[in-house]
Design a protein that fits this description.
By secondary structure, the protein is α+β, with helices and mostly antiparallel strands. It contains 3 helices and 2 strands, in the order αβαβα.
């Protein structure tokens, strides 16, 4: 079976947390990894990465996602 189609049957949304590698506003002219996953898996990405953040910001990013989109 086509693995991309199989994976897309399991989920349609994905949350991405992180730092500048994830931040859509950091180097906006460079495609981010989650945009490839969006295209390949036909998912809706919810991106919460912020440039300069470290691991101690992960709980805040998760909390923000939960407020906006639920668990």
């Amino acid at each position: 079976p086509d693995s991309e189609k199989v994976l897309s049957n399991y989920f349609s949304d994905a949350v991405f947390i992180g730092d500048s590698i994830t931040d859509p506003n950091c180097l906006a002219d460079v495609r981010k990894y989650w945009s490839f996953l969006q295209e390949w898996l036909d998912i809706t990405p919810y991106v919460y990465g912020i440039r300069g953040r470290e691991w101690n910001d992960v709980p805040r990013q998760v909390e923000q996602q939960n407020k906006e989109h639920g668990q």
